[in-house]
Amino acid sequence: RHCFGNGALNDLNPEQLAAVQHGTGEEAHDQRPLLVIAGAGSGKTNTLAHRVAHLIRQGADPQRLMLLTFSRRAAQEMERRAGGVLHKTLGLPATQAPPGLPWSGTFHSIGSRLLREYSPRIGLDDSFTIHDRGDAEDLMGMVRHDIGLAESKKRFPLKGTCLGIYSRVVNTCEPLDQVLDGIYPWCAQWEDELRRLFGAYVEAKQQQNVLDYDDLLLFWAEMMGEPALARELGERFDHVLVDEYQDTNRLQSQILLAIKPTGQGVTVVGDDAQSIYSFRGATVRNILDFPGQFSQPARIVTLERNYRSTQPVLDASNAVIGAARERHAKNLWTDKSASQRAQLLLVPGEAEQARWVADEVLRQREAGSTLKSQAVLFRTGSHSAALELELARRDIPFVKFGGLKFLEAAHVKDMLAVLRFAQNPRGRMAGFRVLQLIAGIGQATATRLLDAMGEAAEAVETLAQFTPPAQARQEWEQFATLYARLQGAQVAWPADLELVRDWYLPQLERLHDDAQVRKLDVEQLVRLAAGYACRERFLTELTLDPPQATSDESGVPHLDEDYLILSTIHSAKGQEWKAVHVLNVVDGCIPSDMATGSAEDIEEERRLLYVAMTRARERLHLIVPQRFYVTQQAGGGDRHLYAGRTRFITEAMLEKFEQITWPPAHSASPGPGAQPQPQPLMQVRARARAAWR
Ligand code: ATP
Ligand code: MG
């Protein structure tokens, strides 16, 4: 149905085609960097996939293409799309797979691969492990304690805040005092202490041979500071292509610039109206400044035709973004006319909202739309709680993205920590976690042991020679044997993880009452492992871009079923569904009351609503509960708040919407209690979710 259907270039409009063919064929003389800046649903990602396919068809070596996307899922989707186009146009037999894209992924994951490969040349030990946010926070807390800040300074910022400040400084390349004044004014008094803390934190990471997320970009950028290495990398890749460029940060643009100073072979696509990650240090300046950043000016292509949404959906979305303070010069049009306007639903509270969505989702399914073609979007992971219960109660299967993550489950963390500890014996966060799983080993013993751990080669010996407390002798021997086997070269991946599982299951039984439920995740982790080439890739990819739901990308059986997507707006970026239901479109949620600080913050919330609305192809429902819980920061405690419709939809815009008030005419939903009990499977899933910490 879409241009991927037959994969031919003649499905592209002239502007898309220009972007796809830029710098090739008759235009080979024009090697300017390319910027495609265009509104939602105009085919940017599609164009990028076509460009990749076109380059390969023209003889480019897939090994020499670097494709940077926002998530691993997006990278896989791009690979699939480009592969589909190639398959058709190269006339490959159905049985032959199209060439893959070995260097596609997020900035962080490509960075970690390059760092590992070049580590000997930049003084990095190649057995480094990567800390996720949780580990990084814990290490920050530990360092803080070690240098005596925890005791002496009662109101010193929490470890999470400290990490936030540190991360912001690294990603924006701004000085600490500036970040403090601008974003964390209440921490400005601690500038000296923070500087000391961050110094010690960096030191600790180096001693333990661990990198946090930010280091992956930071070290990559530093590596590019070596002229010889920068040249080598620039020559190694003929093309660097980036999707969603509006959400990159300063470090990322520096890296891009360093790989390709002339801009030859650089393609970026994005939409300034969809920039929604400035809270993480991304800056829309990257895309705005792109045209003049290289040694030659960029070619700019804009796309104005929207292929995703119907005209009424587009009208409503355009009204919201049209009122933005910053002008986003976009003139989107579509030829998909429809009579159905976007709907604005007023409901009394969250319970009715949940009921309405469940009703509507089922009604759409009756009308022939699968659950998978619909999505429910919300500002924050916790906002879907009432809906999740309602869906479970009615046995409507769903998968949630962007909320609690599979890898945050304590038992999944335990398993991964064992692998990490084997890979890098100096990593103390993993070490602590693992050693204390052993019955009879407490914090003091674990500390003593970790202090004695040296390099990988000696680690096995250190553990073997250690005399455990008497009550831990047998458990200790089992663990030391496991550790030695994991260090040995003879165990192949993913058999490593099976060994870990066999060792871990008895600990799980001992530690958790709900071990049966947790076991499901453990088994799922083992299944997931089979999809990765080696232990290192598994650990890295999972840490950088974890599966966002228990069933995400893992080939578990129930993925074959039809299921509804629940997602935060941030995680829905770049995607589309036939019907989209947006929860809590009220002031205090969108814009979030956490963000109501500056005018810039508010504008980012407006763009967030725009991103949510532009995910819809045909049906768009914005739901406005009149009453909902928010955590009042100032007053303290939870309070019922009477919420009004979001300020981003003004009176003047209401004509773009069909307004529906509660109870809707077709509402025939019986109240709670009249519904059948959830099936066992749903209960297990609900409990498994509750097990995540
Ligand atoms: P976003 O800003 O949300 O990331 P986008 O600009 O990347 O959107 P795509 O996701 O690439 O847009 O495309 C939106 C939809 O339009 C997809 O379903 C895609 O297949 C379709 N599409 C894009 N270009 C064409 C075309 N030339 N003909 C038909 N359909 C198209
Ligand atoms: Mg896109």
UniProtKB/TrEMBL annotation:
Biased composition annotated in UniProt, kind: Low complexity: 663-672
Listed PROSITE patterns: UVRD_HELICASE_ATP_BIND, UVRD_HELICASE_CTER
Annotated Gene3D superfamilies: 1.10.10.160, P-loop containing nucleotide triphosphate hydrolases (3.40.50.300), PCRA, domain 4 (1.10.486.10)
Enzyme nomenclature, EC number: 5.6.2.4
CDD domains on file: DEXQc_UvrD, SF1_C_UvrD
Residues annotated to bind ATP: 38-45
Residue span(s) of domain UvrD-like helicase C-terminal: 311-574
Keyword ATP-binding: yes
UniProt keyword terms in alphabetical order: ATP-binding, Helicase, Hydrolase, Isomerase, Nucleotide-binding
Protein name: DNA 3'-5' helicase
